Amino acid sequence: MELFFILGILVLVAIVIIFVYNRFVKNRNLVKDAWSNIDVALKRRYDLIPNLVETVKGYAAHEKDTLENVIKARNEAMAVPTGDINEQIKAENQLQKTLRSLFALGEAYPNLKANTNFLQLQEKLNEIEENLERSRRYYNGTVRENNTFGESFPGVLFASMFKYEHFEYFETEDEERQNVKVDFSN
Fold it and tell me: Which of 61, 76, 112, 155 is 20 to 30 A off residue 83, Cα-Cα?
């Protein structure tokens, strides 16, 4: 009888270990799948930025620093190694900040703001940003699920054994939460 009791406990422990391992794998794959949706939207954004910058160049040539910062932020975001989600998030937040300054130029130049090519590019970028926002919400939900399981019982007991990976949320930075100040008093 003792043998069956010990055997039963071993089977129960094996079932728990299998469950926990499979949950870690499932959560990690959901996070990576969610990130791939974001990655598609980011690729579309990267492809659109040079066209947007070229359109703005014709109207705001003396805003060279702003245009160069946008291109630099784009290139840095594209240079982050594939799979390094946490570094990609930091680079994307920087790119988002420079894009805001680019659109502030649109407000400063009425001819640019009326340019149909600029308006079409801006509309396309807005569409990409909306898609990115939906993907970001889904990604953050999968990250929450992954991190909660890895940091709570019973996952925390097996986290190091199963190489639990903590992911960062894809959030806006504090300075992005503030309203953009556009000043034309010059």
Answer: 155
